[in-house]
TrEMBL record:
Protein name per the record: Thymidine kinase
Taxonomic source organism: Leisingera methylohalidivorans DSM 14336
Residues where ATP binds: S9, T10, M11, N12, A13, G14, K15, S16, D87, E88, A89, Q90
Keyword Kinase: yes
GO process terms (BP): DNA biosynthetic process; thymidine metabolic process
Amino acid sequence: MAKLYFNYSTMNAGKSTVLLQASHNYRENRMDTYLLTARLDDRAGEGRIASRIGIGEAADMFAAGDDLYARIEQRLRRGPVAAIFVDEAQFLSPDQVWQLARVVDDLRVPVLAYGLRVDFQGNLFPGSATLLALADEMREVRTICHCGKKATMVVRQDDQGRVLTEGDQVQIGGNETYVSLCRRHWREAAGDLRSSGTAE
């Protein structure tokens, strides 16, 4: 039975690595996959999903306003697809998430979306919020804070390493721009840590 999966994490948790490995597993068993990534993020090159560990794969790109149901339906006319993989899923619009849900329900093809859950201010991305609402299954791709705890938040830094608390929700960047932290250290970095009267 086809399902809509949302695999979420903070920055630098290895989402793209997991996506590429899963797609490879299908292809190794002679089942084709269809890869999509956001046109907005071209750090790996245009039309490419790449991991920090050096593996990569060509992918079709989506932009705001694209009809992903129609795009996938058109791809299926060229031949069967065992699964659809979407990288940078936080950049999907709510409408596009609904289109992916229709792909699962009506075309009966599993869709595996990989993306960030929250931005540098701790707010849900609209695409991620809709995926959290609609996904049949959700999986967290985990990474750790410098303290060893699970990282659930991310801070944005300027080129001097100063933490930024204001700005546009979307700013493309990697390790030079974003650092994944646990909630406590995210609050500390953002200047929001108040004494609670308890020691840790």
